[in-house]
Amino acid sequence: MNSDEGSKIGILGGTFNPIHIGHLILAQGALESFDLSRVLFIPCAQPPHKDASSLADASHRLAMVEAAVEGDPRFEVSDIEIRRGGISYAIDTARQLRRLHPLSKLYFIIGSDTLRELHLWKDVYALLPLCTFITFGRPGPGAGRLRPEDLHLDPPWPERLLRNHITARLVEVSSSDIRHRAAEGMSIRYLAPEVVEMYIAEHRLYVR
Question: Is residue 55 part of a domain?
Fold first, then answer.
C-alpha cells in the first residue's frame, strides 16, 4: 500500500513572521481534534491580503519554522509556496498538494477571523472541494457565534464549513506584537519557542 494512502494531512499556512506558540498550539489542536496524520507548516512567499512591508526574508521565516518544529515528528515544513514565488494563493497550493498526495485527505486549518474572509479568497469555489476546512474559534466576544449568512458563500458551503468550526485552547499571541517587542528591545520569551527567540536575536530581525 502507498504510505500516503489514507493519511490525513493538515495544512497550516501563513507568513510566520515569526512563528509563535499560538501557531504550534493551533496545529496541535487540529491534529488531536481531527486525528490528523501530520501537519504541514507552509510559509508563504507573498501574502495576498496582508501588508508585506514588515515581512522578513522568506529564508529567515522558513528557517524559524523549521527550528520551531524540529524534533516533533507530527509536524513538517514545506517550502512549496516560497519555491513557487509570487503571491501565495491557497488554490495553487491545494492543487499542488493534491498532485503530490493524491491518496491523502487534506485539511486546511484556519481561525474564525479567516473563515469570515474566505469568500474573498481567489477561486474559492474551486478550492473548497479540494480540502476540508477546519476552523478554530479564537478567544473574545462573539467567539463561536458565526451564522451561515456571515460567510457570504453560496449553499451548501456555509453549513459544511460551520460543521467543522470548533472552540479550542488558543492563546492571544500575535506575530505583530512579537515584531513590535523585538523592535523595542523587549523580551519575547514565552511568546515564541526559545530557538525562534534566539534566531531573531542572532540575525537582528525586526530591528528598526
Answer: yes
